[in-house]
Design a protein that fits this description.
Largest sheet of chain B: 2 strands, antiparallel
Bound molecules: protoporphyrin IX containing FE, FE2/S2 (inorganic) cluster
CATH superfamily of the largest domain in chain B: Cytochrome Bc1 Complex, Chain C
CATH architecture of the largest domain in chain A: 3-layer Sandwich
CATH architecture of the largest domain in chain B: Up-down Bundle
Number of helices of chain A: 9
Largest sheet of chain A: 5 strands, antiparallel
Radius of gyration of chain B: 29 Å
Shape of chain B: globular
Shape of chain A: extended
Distance between the termini of chain B: 20 Å
CATH class of the largest domain in chain A: Mainly Beta
Helix content of chain B: 55-70%
CATH superfamily of the largest domain in chain A: Rieske [2Fe-2S] iron-sulphur domain
Oligomer: heterodimer
Number of domains of chain A: 3
Radius of gyration of chain A: 38 Å
Strand content of chain A: 5-15%
Number of helices of chain B: 19
CATH class of the largest domain in chain B: Mainly Alpha
Order of helices and strands of chain A: HEEHHHEHHHHEEHEEEEEEEEE
Number of domains of chain B: 2
Helix content of chain A: 25-40%
């Protein structure tokens, strides 16, 4: 620790003692510190525990008492583990089990923590120490030696001189991870195309609209004005890929006064007597749009508050989503059940690059 | 230096014993003969750490990470990262017979059938929240005190990586139980990814192993959560701490403290006792929170299903800023162009977040370019003494807070009976204007505080004691600071902005102009620390004579090569 003299290193860095006041920095910036002199460390102040043996004794007692308390806490937690079985499913037992094992452990931890800190603060010698700082950079000799080593390695290997070897090495190093990267294609199934999958749902001509989650089909006559139903296609519950299908096929069914609905010419006939069906999957990033305000006929997405106006073909009237919710064309079959006329006419859910 | 233990003394009492030191001695000897451990003790045993409450924030992060690892390892013994469908048959009656994934089933099993399991789950989650919160605060303390300056810029970047990794760990962990909320979070991620131009659709397809939600994602996130991310995190954490040792810790200005020393307590024994004890206190606080407060009650949410209503759903708070950014984007920003869908309603918030994070990551380099300051700094700035940096920080915090508030816009609307549109518009204005307002106010406040400090240094502080002068008027007695207190207020530097001078080719480039302008902006209105001469003048009597340098006038500094009176 004797080499306090920092010799000839980066003059700015080595001059940067706070006691020495003004310096130049690299770009011609001038720095001024105060020229008031550093008074040096204040005299050490003795603590009460240093001066009064009774206080020291007391602190001593506090520390070991806390350690004992910690042991008591651990034992308490062990006892709680045994005293509160939870296997019969009683919620109160679970509550107490959690609470008392936790409290016992907390006591065990606090005991050790407080004791150690108190020991450190009140009893251990509290004189401060000083370490000398050195510039982080290596000394000039070290750096010169490092450069020399690299030079030597370059000479001995011919890395810089044998350019063909060097360049082919770089090429090989770049090429070798590629097969490994390609393996990650296997993360998704080889025989499927995401764009294709995203473009279709389970709905097809004649699929009945059934209740989510029971799968009971609904009749047009069940749907009263002002009501809203959560709908899934018939047969969904039997599917292996239930969640994937549901994430695309979920639908909201509402009945409004037909006079309230503004229907564009191409969608004439997509609704039945004021009953309309819209995809429930938000066109923003895909949350279920499931809050329906009856008076305003607005659908609200709980995730980022995109708001869709059912009266105007679910156009966005507020929020980050841009596209209206896709509409499912519906009709009524011979038994009076609501069925789809076809799949949606566009991909449902969040936008994606290849969408259009 | 009367009151210090010289560090060199430490070399005389390393743990390695002479022969015949009893059983501990024998063991130590055995170890040292095989490991050279005595050298480590010699080098680090009496290493000095300075004390300040704000230095404990990094420690809180470290300790909560240890708790996370301990509790998380316990959880892995029970958790099943599988999305195979099962019927729940555990102890929690309301969900009996409900179809769910094995992941959710095992998470419920831990909560209801393993004694103390719920406690450990809650310890894990609370520790994670504390971890991220303390990293954030630690970052703020490093920022506002200028601890990121040379030579610590790279350690700032490492710390930044830790911050990002911590959020990634949080998100992957939150997604594991496969409950309604975690599935909903993944749905949003899926939508975000799909919105990315060119690569979005395929990235999502590969990530989820097919269509959303698929049956692969929980297993994959599990690998990230318990293997890959922790491994990287531990590696960076180790590097981070190695650098703290290499650089030695910074210290605040104080009597006896200089850029060339560090004053504090030695690792053995005082620092070890305090820091070791502090670990148990942090752990204790986490255990208390976990015993009293339920967190993430997945049994109330039920298994993931893409369709149920989930009003008021919130991600964990540390993801809130990203969610908020999605909400704040003005409507209508999605277009079809060149036969492709451009989701600017997603691209813009993502880019904004990336830029925000990038700016945080490279801030040390930006600042040192603007200031032209390439010296090492080990004495911390008091935030007020770097007004522009502090104001930038305040602006950043304000912007982050706006994003964060936006993530709760629906809760604010329902709670205060406002329209959601109104709330969003207010927060949009806040996000745009707030940072400027915060910048301006903070800068003024800092400068005001600096002026006040200077006033106190020169004229003392008001003692509250009123005396009557012989002439009849009353004055309040001003108490002078002692030398030690005064030093804390004057030990800082004042800069002159970079001058616009032609370079070696005799040219002034636009980049140079920009730099000089930014430097002027960064240093405008700075207040220089009081000088010896000013002090003497203010006190009007002979204090201890000054060291020799008078107060250099500002203009002279240009060619000065350094206060060399000490050499
Ligand atoms: C896993 C998370 C982290 C842990 C466990 C951690 C731990 C620590 C500890 C124990 C210290 C020494 C005490 C202190 O100054 O508080 C430290 C110092 C430091 N940390 Fe972190 N830290 C973390 C994240 C970060 C982040 C996110 C940043 C900033 C982007 C950061 C930047 C720094 C810097 C620059 C230092 C040196 C400060 C000085 O010497 O004054 N750290 N860290
Ligand atoms: S997912 Fe519906 S608004 Fe974002």
């Amino acid at each position: 620790m004797a080499h306090d003299e920092v010799s000839g290193i980066d003059s700015a860095a080595s001059d940067s003692s706070a006691v020495e006041t003004s310096h130049r920095t690299s770009a011609g910036t001038a720095v001024i510190g105060s020229d008031v002199e550093n008074p040096g460390e204040p005299p050490h102040r003795a603590r009460v525990t240093d001066l009064d043996p009774a206080k020291a004794k007391h602190a001593d007692r506090t520390v070991y008492t806390l350690f004992y308390l910690s042991i008591a806490g651990s034992i308490f937690a062990l006892a709680a583990y045994m005293a509160f079985p939870i296997e019969d499913g009683d919620p109160v037992a679970l509550r107490l089990n959690t609470l008392f094992i936790g409290l016992g452990s907390a006591l065990a931890l606090f005991g050790i923590g407080l004791a150690a800190v108190h020991w450190g603060k009140a009893l251990m010698v509290d004189k401060e120490g000083i370490d000398v700082r050195h510039p982080v950079r290596g000394t000039d000799e070290t750096r010169a030696r490092a450069v020399e080593i690299f030079d030597q390695a370059d000479k001995e290997s011919g890395f810089g001189r044998r350019t063909l070897i060097r360049n082919s090495l770089i090429g090989a190093i770049i090429a070798f991870p590629l097969p490994g990267l390609v393996l990650f294609r296997g993360l998704g199934p080889q025989d499927q195309d995401p764009v294709e999958l995203l473009s279709h749902t389970m709905w097809k001509k004649g699929s009945r609209l059934t209740l989510d989650p029971s799968g009971i089909p609904v009749r047009a006559s069940d749907i009263t004005i002002g009501s809203v139903f959560h709908i899934i296609p018939e047969g969904l519950n039997e599917r292996e890929d239930l969640l994937e299908q549901k994430a695309k096929a979920a639908v909201l069914l509402m009945r409004l006064d037909p006079a309230d609905l503004n229907i564009s010419p191409e969608r004439e006939g997509w609704s039945y007597d004021g009953i309309v069906a819209y995809s429930k999957i938000c066109t923003h990033v895909g949350c279920p749009v499931a809050l329906y305000e009856q008076q305003t006929h607005h659908l609200l997405c709980p995730c980022h508050q995109s708001t869709f106006d059912v009266v105007n073909e679910a156009k966005v009237i507020f929020g980050p989503a841009k596209r209206p919710l896709p509409q499912l064309p519906i009709e009524v079959d011979s038994e009076g059940y609501l069925v789809a006329q076809s799949d949606f006419h566009e991909p449902v859910g969040p936008s994606f690059w290849e969408r259009s | 230096m009367t009151s210090t233990i010289e560090r060199t003394e430490a070399a005389e009492s390393p743990a390695t014993p002479k022969k015949g030191g009893g059983i501990t001695g024998a063991a130590a000897n055995y170890l040292d003969e095989r490991t050279s451990i005595s050298a480590v003790v010699k080098e680090f045993g009496r290493k000095i750490f300075p004390d300040h409450w704000s230095f404990m924030l990094g420690e809180v992060a470290l300790y909560s990470f240890v708790v996370i690892i301990l509790s998380g390892t316990f959880l892995t013994f029970f958790f099943q990262a599988s999305m195979v469908e099962t019927h729940y048959e555990g102890a929690f009656v309301p969900l009996k017979g409900v179809e769910m994934s094995a992941a959710m089933d095992s998470a419920l099993h831990i909560s209801f059938d393993v004694r103390g399991g719920l406690l450990v789950r809650q310890i894990h989650h609370w520790a994670a929240l504390l971890f991220i919160a303390s990293i954030g605060l630690h970052m703020l303390r490093v920022f506002f005190t200028g601890a990121f300056r040379k030579p610590r810029e790279l350690n700032w970047m490492i710390g930044f990586v830790l911050f990002v990794l911590a959020m990634a760990e949080g998100f992957t962990g939150y997604s594991l139980p496969d409950d309604l909320l975690s599935g909903n979070g993944l749905r949003i991620i899926d939508g975000l990814i799909k919105g990315m131009p060119v690569i979005g659709t395929w990235t999502s397809f590969l990530l989820f192993g097919g269509e959303f939600p698929g049956t692969a994602i929980v297993g994959r996130l599990y690998t990230l959560h318990i293997l890959l991310l922790p491994a990287i995190l531990v590696a960076f954490l180790a590097l981070h701490l190695v650098f703290v040792v290499v650089h030695k810790h910074t210290q605040f200005a104080g009597p006896g403290r200089t850029e060339k020393n560090v004053i504090g307590y030695p690792i053995l024994p005082v620092y070890a006792a305090k820091a070791g004890g502090f670990f148990f206190l942090v752990f204790g606080v986490i255990a208390l929170m976990a015993s009293f407060f339920t967190i993430n009650p997945i049994w109330n949410y039920g298994p993931y299903d893409p369709s149920p209503v989930s009003a008021g759903t919130q991600p964990d708070w540390y993801i809130g800023f990203a969610d908020g950014a999605l909400r704040l984007i003005p409507p209508g920003l999605e277009f079809v162009w060149l036969n492709h869908t451009w989701s600017f309603n997603i691209i813009i918030p993502v880019i904004a977040l990336v830029l925000l994070l990038l700016f945080v990551a490279i801030y040390p380099f930006v600042e040192s370019w603007v200031t032209g300051d390439k010296r090492e700094h080990h004495i911390l700035d008091r935030p007020r003494n770097a007004p522009t940096r502090t104001a930038i920080g305040a602006a950043g915090v304000t912007f982050y807070a706006a994003l964060w508030a936006a993530a709760s816009s629906d809760l604010m609307a329902t709670h205060f009976q406002l329209s959601i549109e109104g709330v969003i518009h207010v927060v949009q204005a806040w996000a745009v204007l707030g940072p400027f307002i915060a910048y301006f106010i903070t800068k003024r406040v800092c400068i005001g505080l600096m002026k006040k400090d200077r006033e106190i240094v020169l004229h003392g502080y008001e003692s509250g004691r009123i005396v009557r002068l012989p002439g009849g008027e009353y004055i309040e007695v001003h108490e002078q600071l002692d030398d030690y207190e005064r030093w804390k207020l004057v030990d800082y530097e004042s800069f002159e902005p970079i001058m616009l001078r032609p370079n070696s080719n005799g040219k002034i480039t636009p980049v140079m102009r920009l730099r000089s302008a930014m430097s002027n902006w960064f240093f405008e209105d700075r207040i220089a620390p009081a000088s010896r001469a000013e002090l003497d003048a203010a006190h009007g009597h002979g204090h201890a004579p000054a060291v020799g340098t008078g107060s250099p006038a500002r203009g002279e500094l240009e060619d000065q090569t350094g206060g060399n009176t000490h050499h």
